[in-house]
Amino acid sequence: MSKTVEPKVEKDVDDIEYNEDAVEKKPTFLETISAVIWSALMFIGIGLYIVLICYKKTRLLMVIYYIWIIYDNVVNKTPIYGRRVEFVRNMKLWKLVRDYFPIRLHKSANLDSNKQYLFGYHPHGIVCISSNIAFSSEALSISKVFPGINIRLATIPINFWVPFWRDYVLMIGYCNCDRKAITGIFKETNHSVVIVIGGANESLYSYPGTYKIILKRRKGFVRIALKNGISLVPVLNFGEVDVFDQIQHKIVTENNTLIKKYLGFRLPTFYGRLKLWIPYSRPINVVTGIPIDCPKIENPTDEDIQKYLDLYIAELQRIWEENKDKYAKNRKTELELVE
């Protein structure tokens, strides 16, 4: 008697169970193309602006456009108040990028929709792809995972001065990572903020299997939380460090010293698939921690700040210990605070 073979049903990009783990897979052609497009968006925006400003018929329009950028940043202060467009955040492109790696989100606790939160994200990796997919799009249904929490991802101010690219980052919900800007968000809106604590400098520690983060001397975010009575939520990703390789060279190091001096950050020399900027397909699991409630202290002392930083580090270590053997089986280091 022959057995009935059930047809294999392929999952649609909208049918993902978000409590499932990200595991290594071979990406489809469409997922790969989507990852390539996402990785090149900034370069596409800059290239388009250069072409249009060099073309006589569109030059004046581009000049007017940049005057608008200045007005929008300085007068409207849009990087603080935001210009989210839900249609853009829900685009299928982000779900395809999500499944290219793939990326999955796991939470340790529910959040109170009546509160504001400051999420600290670790590690940065090279370009921090997972934070974009998790918090600046609906690819992982963040609005359903944390209902009622309006989350914005902080980035360096220079991103809001890059033509076309700045309009994209505004539409998906980015905000300025400047301390005054974030304080303004907490005081003048009901938004919560995600800060990649280690910033671009942490990217220099990013090598496959290596979990080194900058945190010991990063106390500004704790000060902001205490001054505003905002709860802190540590977030640790497993796998972001695996999606690019990078090389070190004396010339690169010297150039980075100059870049750090004048721009405030350093540039890693990285490569992925085909030795290009295309990231490797590696699973990334993002785990959010249990919130740390901070009292509102107008002028927190160094002792106050250190106390809550220690609580934050302890929760980050808990996430690591409970998940490392599941999500970082091929790690080369344990979680290490290098600065």
TrEMBL record:
E.C. numbers: 2.3.1.20
CDD domains with a match to the protein in the record: LPLAT_MGAT-like
Catalytic activity field: an acyl-CoA + a 1,2-diacyl-sn-glycerol = a triacyl-sn-glycerol + CoA
Record key words, sorted: Acyltransferase, Endoplasmic reticulum, Glycerol metabolism, Lipid biosynthesis, Lipid metabolism, Membrane, Transferase, Transmembrane, Transmembrane helix
Signal peptide positions on this chain: none
Major localization listed first in the record, in broad terms: endoplasmic reticulum
InterPro entries found in the cross-reference section: DAGAT
Protein location: Endoplasmic reticulum membrane
Coiled coil: none
A single MF term (Gene Ontology): diacylglycerol O-acyltransferase activity
Pathway: Glycerolipid metabolism; triacylglycerol biosynthesis; Lipid metabolism
Keyword Heme carried by entry: no
One term under GO cellular component: cortical endoplasmic reticulum
Enzyme class: transferase
GO biological process: ceramide metabolic process; glycerol metabolic process; intracellular triglyceride homeostasis; lipid droplet formation; triglyceride biosynthetic process
Membrane topology: Multi-pass membrane protein
Positions of transmembrane segments: 35-55
Role according to the record: Catalyzes the terminal and only committed step in triacylglycerol synthesis by using diacylglycerol and fatty acyl CoA as substrates.
Family the entry assigns: Belongs to the diacylglycerol acyltransferase family.
Protein's name in the database: Diacylglycerol O-acyltransferase
